[in-house]
Amino acid sequence: MPVFEYRARDxxxxxxxxxxxxxxxEVALAELHERDLHxxxxxxxxxxxxxxxxxxxxxxxxxxxxxxxxxxxxFLWRQAAQMQIAGMSISHTLTLLGDTGRGPLARFCQRQxxxxxxxxxxxxxxxxxxxxxGPLEYGLIRAGEALGRLDVQMNRLAENFEKxxxxxxxxxxxxxxVVLTALASVACSYVITVVVPAIxxxxxxxxxxxxxxxxxxxxxxxxxxxxxxxxxPAARWAIDRFKLAVPFLGGVFRRLSIARFARSxxxxxxxxxxxxxxxxxxAPTTGNVFLAQRLLELPPLVRDGLPLASxxxxxxxxxxxxxxxxxxxxxxxxxxxxxxxxxxxYEADAESSAMILAIAGCVALMLIQGxxxxxxxxxxxxxxxxxxxxxxxxxxxxxx
Length: 400
Description:
The protein is mostly helical.
């Protein structure tokens, strides 16, 4: 949050100077007026620019085994907002959420209720649990504390997670067809390679173990990749860069990342944060470390006076449509509204792309399944009639 240096005089003419944290200059000025000070100078403190790290930090190995659903997040912030509207303290709110909730978030509330009662800000408590809370939650709660409207920012978080749930459900239902088709292909392979030979007297258990070995190796590799993703900043960066470069799927990942970034930035700017600080908080919410690193290069440029649209062009990560809509928002003074429109557009675009990929994936898997069945049938009949072994170059003894 920006720190403002000020010089002022009180009602009896004594001089006063110092610094205070505030979301914007207007908020700082209003706070000084509430202290009955007549301000003669007020300006943001110039902070030295820090070089950006080569790779953003990773939450640690525990993040690979900590699962917090979006539904739990939405429920937590919606309930907390209602309690704040009712006038409860943060300590009482956390106590109730810890008693009525379940899972990691409820345990966090139980642990931190006493710390909140001792005066610790909620934003600081959140920042100490990066495996549970993301940068968007920290940023909006911090803005709510500065503005004195925690209930508003908590409702913003709940709405953001509800929209994310809706988007994920739409994409998942499209991709569910691919998953079901893949499972059917695996089942068909098991029948062909294990069950059918067992009818002729082959041992089932050794064949089943041989069949499961490749899937076990793949599962172990995925688990190792997940642990590396959460524990190694370099691995996170490399994996996320690869995801954006994958043909077809990379475009869907990029659209989803742009939609998350635009929605988060819209919420932060709408909460009253300066664009530079909002960019710093919104960048990691893309869900892609490589893209977030490129976006984290923009806040210093924006603070130095570069328009947001020009900064997005300089990043080289945004399509012209996004840049044009942001430019229009800057001209009209409604950046948050236009960014929300960008999020809606790219969410719908990602959903339609996922549908196309799901259809293509189902067709490809069915073709593979048909080829496997065809190979087995040809091998069976050629051997049955004594025509010799049927061999397909590159497949070897696939069905033996």
